[in-house]
Specification:
36% of the residues lie in helices and 19% in strands. It is α/β, with parallel strands linked by helices. β1 and β2 form a beta hairpin.
Amino acid sequence: MFSLIQLESFVAVAEELHFGAAAARLNMTQPPLSRQIQLLERELNAQLFLRSSRRVELTEAGQTLLPSARRILDMCRKTDLDVRRVATGDAGSIVIGYTAIAGQSELPAILRLAREHMPGVSLVLREAVSTDQLDMLATGAIDVGLLRPIVSRSGLVTRPLLEDRLVVALPAGHELLTGRGVLLRQLDGLPLMMYSSAEARYFHDLVTRLFDSAGAHANVTQFASQVPALLAFVAAGLGVSLVPASTMEWASPGVGFEELAGPAGLADLNHADLHIAWNEASMNRAVAKLLPLVLAGHGDGADATGGDAPDAGRDTEAGTGADGGSATDAGSGTGAEGGSATDAGPGTGTGAGPGSGGG
C-alpha cells in the first residue's frame, strides 16, 4: 500500500512538473523525492511521469491518480485538524468552498471575521464550481460553500450574501463603451464569450434567458467555466461577454464595462446573486460559530443567533437556479488550501471598474 509521503511527493511533482522545484517545496533533496516516486510507481505498477532532460510530464496513469491523491491528502489534513479540534475544544477547522468571484468579493471579509473572532480555528480553502460544492457539502468534504443559487438539495441550507447583476464586458476602446449602457440587441451578431453549460450552468442559463427576453441572437464563439477566463478572452479582443458586476473592481485594464439596458422587466430577470450554503446536519461547532457572524454582517443575524447556526435558515433549502462558479483551464478550480485566516486579497465591493457605464 502506498504511503502519504509518496502521495505528497507525487502531487508536488505533478503540480510543479519539475523535480527540483518539487523537492524545494517539500524541504527535501531530489534523490529521496525520486525514490518516493519510484516506490509509488512500483506499488501501483504504473509509470506516472514521462521524464526527459528538458521536461517532466504526467502519463495518463498519473493524470488519473492526481485528483484522487489530492482528495486523499485533503481528507487526511482535514482529519488531523478535526481530531485536534476535539482535543482542544475551541480549536478546529472549517473547510470553505468558494467560486472564483466569491474569492474576490465575499471570501476576504469572511476570513477577516474568522481571524478577529475565531483565531484558534484553521481555515481550509477549496475553490470549486457551485455544482461541485453541492456534492462536497453533501459528503462533508467542505463545511461552508460560497456559491450561486442552485438546484434544491435536501438537507442543504442557503442564504443570500451578495446581490449581483450581469454587466456587459467589452474590449477597451470598443465603440459600445459610451457610458450610456448597452441593449442586448446591440450585441446581436457580436462574438460572445459564453459560460460552459456543464460547469457554469447557472450563468449559461441566465445569459440565455436574457438574450431570449430581448429577442437577440447569442453568437457564441468561445466557452469557459470561469469569469476570469471570459474576461481574458474579452481583453484579447476576441469578443464580448456578460459578467457579474462584482468583477469590475478587479478586471484587467484591457476590459471596459457597460450596464445592461433593455425593456421593462430586464432588471427583474438580471440577478446573479451569491449565496452561502451549509449542511444543516453539520456537527462542526466552528461552523456554528462562524455562520452567525457572517449572516449578521448581511442583515440576517436574527435567524442565526446562538451557537447552533446550522439550525438557522432551515426555511431556505438550496435554491432554485442552476450552477455556476469557477474552474481552471478556462477553468477548473482544484482548490487553494490555506491555514489560519489571514488577510486574503482585495476587500468586498461591486463598484464600477474601468470603462464602466454604470454603478
